[in-house]
Specification:
Number of strands: 0
Largest sheet: none
Structural class: mainly alpha
Radius of gyration: 15 Å
Number of helices: 9
Length: about 180
């Protein structure tokens, strides 16, 4: 049995269970699990990333922020490498949104390459979603503000993958916001 494949499937299943009752904030209330799955797809298909640890971390990236998952649980289930990457990309949800953004930008230069890859994929997925299926109630200004924030994050993480940064920039320039 391919242990790498088993690990990725376990991570997808774990994320699916943890996010099972969650929905995105768009009009269709898309199942939340679609977001981590999209990150994994972006990394593999567009970034040509084949690191099992990075793919698993992408699948699990929002479990600490958005579910009752602890870092200890991730480490026990998936090991210190994957748990560590997820911890690196997790924002402090005790802070207000503006403070989280400031902290996120300040931390990016010190992230591991693996964590930067997850951040890049997350921002690519998020700007695609904001463009095509934004959260209900988001104004044009809020969408533009998120795009600009995502660009700053992507610029700070571009050394991890020029290919993914190029995908981000292409999307940033071509996605319609209205």
């Amino acid at each position: 049995m391919n242990t790498d494949l088993v690990k990725v499937v376990r991570a997808a299943y774990f994320a699916g269970e943890k996010h099972s009752k969650q929905r995105r904030g768009d009009l269709e209330e898309t199942p939340y699990i679609n977001h981590p799955l999209e990150l994994a797809s972006i990394l593999v298909d567009e970034g040509q990333i084949d690191s099992v640890d990075v793919i698993c971390a992408a699948l699990l990236h929002d479990t600490i922020e958005d579910t009752d998952t602890s870092i200890e649980e991730l480490i026990s289930q998936f090991g210190p490498k994957i748990g560590g990457i997820v911890a690196e990309v997790s924002n402090n949800m005790n802070l207000d949104s503006a403070s989280r953004k400031v902290q996120e930008l300040a931390c990016i230069p010190n992230l591991s390459i693996e964590a930067k890859l997850v951040k890049l994929a997350d921002k690519i997925a998020n700007i695609r979603d904001v463009s095509t299926m934004p959260p209900v109630g988001w104004t044009l200004d809020k969408k533009k503000s998120y795009f600009d924030f995502a660009l700053e994050v992507a610029k700070s993480a571009k050394d991890a993958s020029p290919r993914l940064f190029e995908v981000f920039v292409n999307d940033y320039q071509h996605l319609k916001i209205d």
